[in-house]
Amino acid sequence: MQKIIQQIALELGVTTQNTNAAVQMLDEGATVPFISRYRKEMTGAMDDGQLRTLQERLLYLRELEDRREAVLASIDEQGKLTADLKKSVLDAATKTALEDLYLPYKPKRRTKGQIAIEAGLEPLADSLFDDPRQKPEDVAKQYIDKDKGFGDEKAVLDGAKYILMERFAEDAELLGSLREYLVENSRLTTVVVDGKQQEGEKFQDYFEYSESFADIPSHRALAILRGRKEGILRSSLLVGDDESAQHPCEGMIASKQGIENQGRPADAWLQSVVQWTWRIKLSLQIETDLMMQVRQAAEEDAITVFANNLKDLLLAAPAGSHTTMGLDPGYRSGVKVAVVDATGKVLYHTAIYPHAPQKKWNDALATLGALCKKHKVALISIGNGTASRETDKLAGELVKLMPDARMTKIVVSEAGASVYSASELGAKEFPDLDVTIRGAISIARRLQDPLAELVKIEPKAIGVGQYQHDVNQTKLARGLDNVVEDCVNAVGVDVNTASAALLSYVSGLSPALAANIVAHRESHGAFADRRTLLDVPRLGAKVFEQAAGFLKVRGENPLDASAVHPESYEVVEAIAKSNQRDVKSVIGDGAFLRQLQAKDYVSGDVGELTIKDIIAELEKPGRDPRPEFKTAAFKEGVEKVSDLKEDMILEGVVTNVTNFGAFVDIGVHQDGLVHISALANTYVKDPRTVVKAGDVVKVKVMEVDVQRKRIALSMRLDDDSRDVAADKNTAASKKPATKKARPQRRQEPAAAGGAMADALAAAFKK
């Protein structure tokens, strides 16, 4: 275990003492948010990211150690464990290196080489390998045995070939060298499977494609792997331009085994063994291994991208506690409407039919106007799905007709709303409501507080990932759950209003305990202070220690609504007392708190780092780390892809950030892509250094492909679409030009006129 501690400490650049303390706390059931915030002295102030990395590496290295012990035991049972082999096994730093060493000793099905050994051909193989001066056919005659299946010289020599081939292919050092060479020198090429051009149109960028294997980014690797899986693409690893020449890896095998063609009788035969080793045994095996490594690396990258986007989305600015109307747009089925109060409680729900085929525009306005007046609606939240722009226009007219109401309309992502609506949680929360109404409620609530509502949805259903369905689902789920846990605890939770779904992500709380808290709250009333949480069934001292600092209670003690842990209340009282102040007067007094010296209050287990955190929290107790709420204004008259024109400048919302750029919702039911090269006027290595999911940005339309529904955007507003077109034509000069689709004229709905206002006024009177 000490070896693992030392390795992780080295990788993270921290002390072994801090690493050991973090591992011990994790093993005892402490959570990453708790350790990160409340045990800084013990870990050397490791942040959430470092602790998550530590957690992942700890899992991997422990699995490696378990496998190492099993390998050593297996080889030892076979009586083949030498001192040198044991040292090599103990020094293996990765699972791949360990399995390479174990390969010759791994129990396997009978191979052709083993059959040849059982037939007594191993001495022949050794003899020709050791002394190439012998003529293979002459020596082979001595080993002919029809009863054992080797009835002529060719069969005998083939058997000897298999013996040497399998021996060469189980050389761990050689395998490592071949992998390293191919990673550095090969290129991954893909071609389309004949007859699959039309079916695999979405993969057409890879129909004839080649890129350095070492440089291929994760999103392209995953696209190629998906294309292979769907039978659209074939891929291979190539080295050099002349594939008919001897493969460099054959030379590496020959060199490692000391095989050299000097014109001796057995040299040609030994060269054929080398060819067999590469072409029959190793080429496909190593290519498969390398593609698996690429997949794993790409998956880790994709999970990181998804996790970063999810974090940005969860920590998006909340609109706040205001009465909100949620509109779930639709055509034939109508627009579902839900009004919720400032706490998210449902006040009213209905459906309106303003769009085709019913076209009850004025009736819809009258209904919405009456609801807004009755419930004093402040925010209108519109889902961004089908008919969202038309519904946004409806809401816009409503806002104009009711200027005194000072309402704000916002289009929000409805990704995952349908998942929540049909989920067990949605059914339990609203058993008597239709799934479509549940969707409207979710759309309203996610504007008020994205974090509180999105935790009810399976993270991978939120739709901000990169090939999320192609990656290891267990790793994805673990990674995304970690993100949700970190975000919930970074913001904190009001224990008297939070749902069970939100509480379940609080440090130390399981879904069962979260449900117990809600049940206790419903039966005994609101919690008066943090200590009363100990009255909840099965919530003991250990859970309280983990959870209390993240659970806020707005009551008599102001510290209960802050991030100060109850274990540190005495520290706050001591600070106040030493300055002849009471605790309430200290809280929020920035001038007083900023002049305090943390080192003056260090005592016992409470170190300077903790004191600094306490003082910072007292200055702004219960502060929300999320940004200020902002909205994007979609351009009037631009509602479909065909409405877009090159060089238009539009406002939009970043919906997804990948390694190759950012997708932006500009209100046409199809996100546009700002390629990484068009994010800024300077070089950008990581798109997230420029934009994050939820950001409101201005973009310029550079290119529109109506047929493929592809929109190229730029955040460099001085870019010229003609330059992009010229570059594209130059790059594709050998391909036939694609005729650009002409934008279609948009059909405007009929003007409302005075009849609309009359209908609205009539509704108010009712």
Radius of gyration: 33 Å
In quaternary terms, these chains amount to single chain
- The separation of the N and C termini measures 75 Å
Tally of helical runs: 31
Give the overall form: globular
Briefly note the structural class of the backbone. Answer: alpha/beta
Determine the CATH topology of the domain at 171-314: Tex N-terminal region-like
Instruction: State the CATH architecture of the domain at 171-314.
Output: Orthogonal Bundle
Structure description:
Among the domains are: 2-105, RuvA domain 2-like (Arc Repressor Mutant, subunit A, Orthogonal Bundle), CATH 1.10.10.650; 171-314, Tex N-terminal region-like (Orthogonal Bundle), CATH 1.10.3500.10; 641-731, OB fold (Dihydrolipoamide Acetyltransferase, E2P) (Beta Barrel), CATH 2.40.50. Helix 11 packs parallel to helix 15. It is built from 31 helices and 15 strands. Helix content is 47%, strand content 11%. The strands form 4 sheets. The protein has a 5-stranded mixed sheet, sandwiched between helices. The protein has 766 residues and is an alpha/beta fold. 38% of the residues are buried. The radius of gyration is 33 Å and the shape is globular.
